[in-house]
Specification:
By secondary structure, this protein is of the alpha/beta class. The protein is about 55% helix and about 10% strand. It has a five-stranded mixed sheet with strand order 1-3-2-4-5. The longest helix has 26 residues, at about 230-255.
């Protein structure tokens, strides 16, 4: 009987401790509430906000943590999170109402521009880290490394898409030379993929090159998403898809100039 009494005394303490741990915010992401939200989102060029339960967990939470890690050194982007409670005083539920965040849709991701904080862009795609980073890049132009991508080669892709035939050949030579200096096997493989795609586009111009990227992206992603594709192959195909995205992003930037 005494043992049972001790259990009933200790159990609430343990549960309280576990709840405190669960409610801790994601390391590197700034926790926002109804009082701090407006003050913070106007301080950075862009703020990427996750609206979620006060006790986030699971695969989607792990993917969000990868985005936070990648964004930590990007001065133009702040990653934040808002925990919305559906119990007690229902903390931050006013922010949920303000931005039409339905708890059935958790997690909800929005990108805020400090120049127009009342018109956030809502993410509507997959919740894996690469999809979230693509969403951020497409709407900000900020670089967040995707699996298989390297900034130096993404920079070359930015030059490559609007270039004429002569410059494209020079950029291919530059990419190949840089690849020879790489020591990491994964980086060398990625460099080879960049160069392979650049060579395939070298004799194509304008819409033809963009058409190649679009068709190749569909082909690669179809294979990647096929249930019969081996897990190891899926990882490789995902890297190819991300590298192709770098070229399509470069093409989109070119069209906006």
């Amino acid at each position: 009987m005494e043992a049972m009494k001790r259990v009933f005394v200790v159990l609430p303490v343990i549960l309280s401790y576990l709840c405190t741990i669960s409610a801790l915010h994601t390391r590197g992401a700034v926790p926002l509430d109804s009082f701090t939200f407006d003050k913070v989102i106007t301080r950075f060029p862009y703020t990427f906000v996750r609206f979620d339960t006060t006790y986030p967990h699971g695969d989607e939470h792990e993917e969000f943590k990868k985005v936070v890690e990648q964004a930590k050194s990007n001065e133009g982007l702040l990653v934040a999170e808002v925990g919305i409670a559906d119990y007690g005083e229902k903390e931050n539920s006013d922010l949920g109402d303000r931005y039409k965040v339905n708890q059935d849709d958790f997690p909800v991701y929005m990108l805020f521009n400090k120049d127009d904080p009342d018109a956030p862009i809502r993410h509507k795609g997959h919740y894996n880290a690469d999809a979230l980073k693509k969403f951020i890049r497409e709407n900000t132009g900020l670089f967040l490394g995707l699996h298989g991508c390297m900034k130096a080669y993404d920079d070359i892709a930015m030059e490559f898409m609007p270039a004429d035939a002569k410059l494209r050949e020079q950029l291919i030579e530059k990419a190949e030379a840089k690849g020879e200096t790489l020591e990491n096997a994964g980086d060398k493989k990625s460099a080879e993929i960049y160069v392979k795609y650049m060579k395939k586009m070298a004799d194509k111009f304008g819409g033809d090159a963009e058409d190649f990227v679009a068709k190749e992206t569909k082909r690669v992603e179809r294979l990647r998403d096929d249930d019969h594709t081996a897990a190891k192959k899926k990882v490789q195909l995902n890297a190819q898809s991300n590298i192709l995205h770098s070229f399509s992003f470069a093409a989109a930037q070119k069209d906006e100039l």
